[in-house]
């Protein structure tokens, strides 16, 4: 289905609007339960979406009694729902600034094993000094450009570690008594400005070879990170990336990023958002575009953006479950009616769903002198 | 009037990356495919085990400067696998090793609290602290600890994690849509910690989990390890030696608890144990010998000897006598990333004992290594094994066992099918779970830290 668009939803708590937890259908008392997340991802899978991203943050948040506080680790949420899903991709956020690339590489590799090839990660930075105090390990603030460059190094380490085992490294050769062929395990010997990592990984190469790497970009430093590190970039303004996606040296899929408030007519959607704004005490603004309207109106917009070279869309539901089900039960059938969305999962892996091949192992190429 | 019989606790150890695990067995499956983890965990849950356990090592082992290739190699990420297992089990405790040297308390506390939520109260943490620069090469924090600082680090790390777990009270989330009050206290999760290891403050963002704190496991036979366990752990792993050695260890660690205001039943003693079952004792004995020789091939015997000798012994014949040269004493250079090396603190003394044993029994290198490294804890017909387990528990050599099958993933099947029913008949093992959490299974404090926030 070459004409189709790719769709993902960004899951975050009770939705992206700060007052979303007060909606009638919201389940604010269950945000840290497995059942809640299973239901959300299950709904996204029934809608045949390509994948979900699961937001994460180490930030303390403001000391306000009227806002949601409390979240679980996004990789674990993804892993918890993986055995109960079959087709949908799982792309948790990972904050490069305060974590170890060695740990993250094996956790995403493991998610790929658990989900049989449906894993990815969405790389993020954290420039907030209050968050840095949770770790107490580095001086803050630091220039944002540096944090993005560090994140690009971080992904480079993660990717090298995924390749640090060749696919056929495990040989179980009874004749020689060897479980592995150690010539097919590789030190990555990464030495960078912020850290050095020796390798190899403790986890064999994951089913997809290289799980999907995504990044949200809203400025020049973010675009650079995406060019260096990502397979998919989520952007507020797709036009800003024109021509750059080709420079990445690997396919870089451009997804437009939108917050959505969806109802059966435009006025209803607008008044719902206005009501939420009033509850929150401020008009909701985001670091990306906000769409307020009908699923059919959104379909028009998305198809117009597709004409402008956008491969897919990441939709952030303003309120969950309302705007999530409006996507899966409203937007998806609408796109399908227009011949722009699939009827089923047509590939077993996330890379496959997105039309990306399974990459060759960089170290195998080196060894065979290619 | 006899005293009531103690209940046995049992756990399932996912086979490790060492020569106990026999990968050459025709029944041996993948050590990395998720289906293998599911198989072992569901077998353990079917048998009403207390918990599943997964070990961790953060750098591939090397010997003689090369990656060690004779044993199983490759493991998953602990948290990620345990979170996924929470989806395919309902009651089984989910525990794993997480290192306190190459992690930060905020991240680890967040991960365990997440796991405890996602498993509805089944998380457990085996706290280990390493000090080697070899493993440190994989981490941005790099570096390492002086060996004598590792328990300081472990203690401070755990205290800090406890502070984070306890930073939320049980009823902080009101989530009243009408009034708009989500949090009872806008400062929920506030923490502040300044000591020689950590200098951190802020808001912990995971609400109090079903168990409050994960169950804390501790492995270690050293004096410091025992003291650490007595102060902070809910269960302690040990090596299973003789009944007398088990009783001495048991009495020692239980005796240390009073110093910390704790009762003996608040620390569960669980030696790791291997087993070989047969239809008869004789058949099991025969099979056990076969397994030991699978575990200790000639090549493996030389490598195991090198770990004590701290020398390249690749020129020696495994079917021949022990080397005449003595172990090289001093910095250990031959085998890296391996905890077992530390077991032989006096290699010259070990060599003397082994030479005497080899001479007395006329053993080759391989036969000696089979003799000293491979002996299974329980060998026999199911009734023999059930009786031995019951006896060790009733005589206070342990409170139960962490069973280490030698074949992945089906190595626990026969134990679950044949030994567990006999323990149940004896009235010393549960026939069903009595509560939802791992703390319920272990019979330890249900609300550590008070939950007052």
Structure description:
The complex is a heterodimer of chains A (370) and B (453). By secondary structure, chain A is of the alpha/beta class. Chain A has a single domain, classed as TIM Barrel (Alpha-Beta Barrel). Chain A contains 11 helices and 13 strands. An 8-stranded parallel beta barrel of chain A has the order 1-2-3-4-9-10-11-13, surrounded by 8 helices. A two-stranded antiparallel sheet of chain A has the order 5-6. Chain A has a two-stranded antiparallel ribbon with strand order 7-8. In chain A, strand 7 and strand 8 form a beta hairpin. In chain A, helix 8 crosses helix 9. The longest helix of chain A has 20 residues. The two termini of chain A are 34 Å apart. With 453 residues, chain B is an alpha/beta fold. Chain B has 2 domains: 338 residues, TIM Barrel; 77 residues, no CATH class. Helix content of chain B is 36%, strand content 16%. Chain B has 14 helices and 17 strands. In chain B, a hairpin with a 4-residue loop joins strand 7 and strand 8. In chain B, helix 2 runs parallel beside helix 3 and helix 3 crosses helix 5. Chains A and B meet through helix 2, helix 3, strand 6 and strand 8 of A and strand 4, helix 2, helix 3, strand 8 and strand 10 of B.
Gist of the model:
Chain A is built from eleven helices and 13 strands.
The chain-level structural class of chain A is alpha/beta
CATH top level assignment of the largest domain in chain B:
Alpha Beta
Please name the CATH architecture of chain A: Alpha-Beta Barrel
Q: Kindly give the count of domains of chain A.
A: 1
The total tally of domains of chain B equals 2
**And the CATH topology of the largest domain in chain B?**
TIM Barrel
Strand order of the largest sheet of chain B: 1-2-5-6-11-12-13-17
Query: Main sheet of chain A, how many strands, which sense, barrel?
Result: 8 strands, parallel, barrel
Query: Which sheet architecture does the biggest sheet of chain B show?
Result: 8 strands, parallel, barrel
Structural class of chain B: alpha/beta
Measured by residues with Cβ under 8 Å of the partner chain's Cβ, the largest interface is: A-B, 79 and 74 residues
**Tally of helical runs of chain B:** 14
Helical percent range of chain B? Answer: 25-40%
Listing every helix as H and every strand as E from the N terminus to the C terminus, the arrangement of chain A reads EHEHEHEHHEEEEEHEEHEHEHHH
